[in-house]
């Protein structure tokens, strides 16, 4: 159990390839000296990059962080489709992709920008009747996931690089939470009639946290650095500083006469982070989402 010396805040990790998100959480639990560690959105073992972890009371921020925009750099291989839509799966189909022109590929990508309906990859962590989809696939079951709305805010393609019957394409994208980059690779390959899968994925940002604020696990082992919960809240959400009377109302979980447009972090006069509030049904009122005092 954590004691008063246990740090409370966010840890931004630059996840290495070959580790699951749970592996990273387990490592940080040992470094922090507490089991109260969680992450704001899974990264596949193949993927690298920004993984935001909460330590102590900051784990309660994670559900809200998971809803923020994310950014990725990815490499798509056209000409091969796989069972997992990435390089770790078995090949299901091949086609000569070297006939494709850069103009054709870039034009096909236009369909994946904006508000789209996307069928998640079958080996996702989405639960189907209480069991993760990837677990059902590994057990030999056929998994048919329904399409769901996601938003790709920006998708910037690089030049094509030719190979033995395949071509590789680098992409940089910003997207809503819940977007599967593997599914974009799969669907782009299908749209071009050659199949496609993801060969590399690096998450470059989660909300306002990017690689410039990320630490490797080796760096954390040498100097375990936590972004304090108050600073993390100010960086992540709109902030509002309360007077003494309103701060006391927050400590009791009461609604406030406060105009907020979105989930907002509220603070006591001394700078203590108190709670997250969101717009209430009544105009000019805000209600607590999560209170962090007590």
UniProtKB/TrEMBL annotation:
Active site: 44
Catalytic activity: uridine(55) in tRNA = pseudouridine(55) in tRNA
Matches recorded under CDD domains: PseudoU_synth_EcTruB
Domain tRNA pseudouridine synthase II TruB subfamily 2 C-terminal as annotated: residue spans: 237-292
EC number(s) stated in the UniProt entry for this protein: 5.4.99.25
Domain tRNA pseudouridylate synthase B C-terminal: 182-223
Coiled-coil boundaries: none
Alphabetized GO MF terms: RNA binding; tRNA pseudouridine(55) synthase activity
Record key words, sorted: Isomerase, tRNA processing
Residue span(s) of domain Pseudouridine synthase II N-terminal: 29-181
InterPro entries: PsdUridine_synth_cat_dom_sf, PsdUridine_synth_N, PUA-like_sf, PUA_sf, tRNA_psdUridine_synth_fam2_C, tRNA_psdUridine_synth_TruB, TruB_C
Gene3D superfamilies in the record: Pseudouridine synthase, PUA domain
Annotated SUPFAM superfamilies: Pseudouridine synthase, PUA domain-like
Top-level taxon of origin: Bacteria
An example Gene Ontology biological process: mRNA pseudouridine synthesis
A Pfam family hit: TruB_C_2
Classification via HAMAP family: TruB_bact (MF_01080)
Family membership noted in the UniProt record: Belongs to the pseudouridine synthase TruB family. Type 1 subfamily.
Function description: Responsible for synthesis of pseudouridine from uracil-55 in the psi GC loop of transfer RNAs.
Record-given protein name: tRNA pseudouridine synthase B
Gene from which this protein is expressed: truB
């Amino acid at each position: 159990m954590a004691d008063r010396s246990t740090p409370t805040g966010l840890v931004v990790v630059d996840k290495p390839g070959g580790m699951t998100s749970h592996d990273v959480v387990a490592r940080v639990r040992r470094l922090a000296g507490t089991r109260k560690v969680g992450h704001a959105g899974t990264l596949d073992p193949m993927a690298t990059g920004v993984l935001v972890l909460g330590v102590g009371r900051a784990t309660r921020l994670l559900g809200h962080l998971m809803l923020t925009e994310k950014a990725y750099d990815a490499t798509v291989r056209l000409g091969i489709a796989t069972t997992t839509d990435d390089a770790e799966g078995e090949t299901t189909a091949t086609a000569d992709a070297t006939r494709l022109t850069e103009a054709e590929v870039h034009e096909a990508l236009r369909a994946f920008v904006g508000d789209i309906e996307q069928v998640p990859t079958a080996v996702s962590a989405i639960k189907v009747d209480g069991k993760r989809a990837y677990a059902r696939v590994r057990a030999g079951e056929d998994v048919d996931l329904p399409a769901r709305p996601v938003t790709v805010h920006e998708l910037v393609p690089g030049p094509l690089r030719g190979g033995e019957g395949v071509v590789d394409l680098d992409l940089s994208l910003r997207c809503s939470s819940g977007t599967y980059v593997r599914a974009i690779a799969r669907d782009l390959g299908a749209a071009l009639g050659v199949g496609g899968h993801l060969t590399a994925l690096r998450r470059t940002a989660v909300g306002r946290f990017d690689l410039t604020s990320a630490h490797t696990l080796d760096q954390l082992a040498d100097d375990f650095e936590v972004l304090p919960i108050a600073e993390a809240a100010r960086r992540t959400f709109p902030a509002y500083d309360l007077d003494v009377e309103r701060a006391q109302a927050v400590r009791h979980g009461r609604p406030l006469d406060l105009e907020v447009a979105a989930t907002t972090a509220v603070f006591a006069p001394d700078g203590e982070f108190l709670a997250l509030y969101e717009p209430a049904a009544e105009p000019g009122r805000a209600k607590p989402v999560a209170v962090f005092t007590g």
